[in-house]
Amino acid sequence: MDGDAMRDFASVALDAGLGLTPGTMLRIAGEFPHRELMYAVARAAYDRGARFVKIDYEDVGLARIRADHSRDEYVDSLSAMVEKDSETYVDEGWSYLRIEGYEDPAAMEGVDQERLVRMQRVRGHAVRAYREAQMSSRLPWCVMPGPTEAWARSVLGPSAGVADLWRALAPILRLDCPRPVEELREHMGALEARAAALGGLGLRSLRFNGPGTDLRIALSPASLWQGGSDRTPGGKVFMPNIPTEEVFTTPDFRATEGVVALTRPVRVRGTLIEGGRLVFRRGQVVDYSADRGAAAFGAFLDTDVGSRRLGEVALVDASSPIWRSGLVFDSMLLDENASCHIALGCGYDAAFAGAASISNDEKEARGFNVSFVHEDLMIGSEAIEVTGVDAASREIPLIRGGRFVL
Fold first, then answer.
1. What pLDDT, in 10s, does the model give residues 82-115?
2. CA dihedral 334, 35, 240, 175 (to 10 degrees)
3. Among 146, 305, 309, 373, fewest CB within 10 Å belongs to which?
4. Where are the alpha helices (DSSP H) in 31-72?
5. What residue numbers bound the domain in which 130 lies?
């Protein structure tokens, strides 16, 4: 990626993604292969008047070493520094950019799932303050993809390199446009309009029907349709995900019923899940299977009570440039924007009226799922039909042949 392209990436991240303003404290996270890209973003942030920029290198290899070699009595513990850092980011109002792209996509393949779950559960407790601030949109945050050599080979083949994956991503990120920031903002406006249209229908449930899928997802009167940009309570506009092609809401988890087949592979805690299938009864996953990665799938479902319940449902149609690329990116950020998806785990406060001001117990009493995890699973394709049902039991076609008909 040349200097001009890095500057375009930084502009999209800071101007469209975070709406960065002078005085901002910015945390940038990524893996070591993203170093030069993170430097480019840091330079651009300081040029825009950032107060302080911090880079955190995520090291999945080190996490694997800990899972394999740590004494068992230490697996469930962390330094108090992790929790204090989480609270400081919230207290000081930091903005957060995460650059996603694996140095080694298979780093967690074959890991002891029970130990990994314990490690991630204790970390979930430690960073709870930050996660809750993020899920309730109190802090600006954005996740964008950054190619690596290993990731390029896993998506495009053994002879591919970083430049090849950047070329595949350019139209998806609108980096091939003369004015990418403006193009993204226009796209966000279109998604916001779609969310508003859905919100005006008064839907009380969604039905997904197609090969291997017959699923009913209940919506609460408090379920709010979201899409495109988000806003902090202070009014700062940001884009949590670039790219994004979805409109989504937090459902009433208590009445999810039926069976659903996953239509795209998904990497859960480092293990690739293929051919996944879930059965819901009275809001809970009561059975599951997978052609590949079933043990990891099951371990995830046992993380906590909420990991077997829905926290999100999102609609995406086949006009998505990610779907049109024909590629499976082995990246949740990208693959979730190729098709309709659901998420097991925590719901979004911003997509459920009143959630930000009540306790977790009150949330659950209203059908809002609470969990330490949030894992998206793709369930859409051109063969899956989506129908809305309103309070008068009228059926409203939403997606047919993979396309919105609303």
1. 999 999 999 999 999 999 998 988 888 889 989 9
2. -60
3. 305
4. 35-47, 60-69
5. 3-173
